[in-house]
Specification:
The protein has 163 residues and is of the alpha+beta class. α1 packs antiparallel against α2. Helix content is 39%, strand content 17%.
């Protein structure tokens, strides 16, 4: 028999003793997903900033390039822009299999010299970098978060050639 001071226990399976643990599990999944999404977007934005800087360095180098003997100003600008862009891309951090613009997923071939859009009488150097993030994610794939990340990251810069 039971004594009068002993508390009465609920029958097994009818209490809410484990409800807090289940609620915590649901909330933690959402919380961790949100935290990892914020971190992933921050890393992508940082990488895009590096790409923008590399494109700007390439365009600037092309804009001030002096032609060598037998080279047109456009050829000199194109060669300088491509070289400076590749050097800047080599400075990126991260886990890439090969250095420079030959990195898996990185395309640095969009370098052009042509008329400026705001003043067609002048020439401009345009550098555009494209990184295939869908095929080569920077830091691996995260469940639930990867569906919301971009397939590619683009950055570009334009500089007018000084005559």
């Amino acid at each position: 028999m039971r004594e009068a001071s002993e508390p009465r226990r609920a029958p097994r399976g009818r209490g809410d003793d484990g409800a807090a643990v289940v609620e915590l599990a649901f909330v933690m999944v959402l919380l961790f997903t949100l935290v990892f999404a914020i971190i992933s977007f921050g890393l992508i934005l940082s990488f895009k900033q590096d790409m923008t800087r590399a494109a700007a360095e390439g365009a600037r180098a092309g804009a001030v390039a002096l032609p060598l003997a037998g080279q047109t100003p456009e050829e000199a600008a194109l060669a300088a822009a491509q070289g400076a862009t590749e050097e800047a891309v080599k400075g990126f951090g991260g886990s890439f299999s090969t250095p420079g613009c030959t990195r898996a997923g990185m395309d640095c071939s969009n370098v052009a010299v042509g008329p400026c859009s705001e003043d067609p009488t002048r020439d401009c150097v345009t550098v555009e970098l494209v990184f295939d993030y869908g095929a080569e994610p920077l830091y691996g794939r995260l469940p639930l978060v990867s569906a919301f990340l971009p397939d590619e990251v683009r950055a570009g810069s334009v500089a007018r050639i000084n005559d």
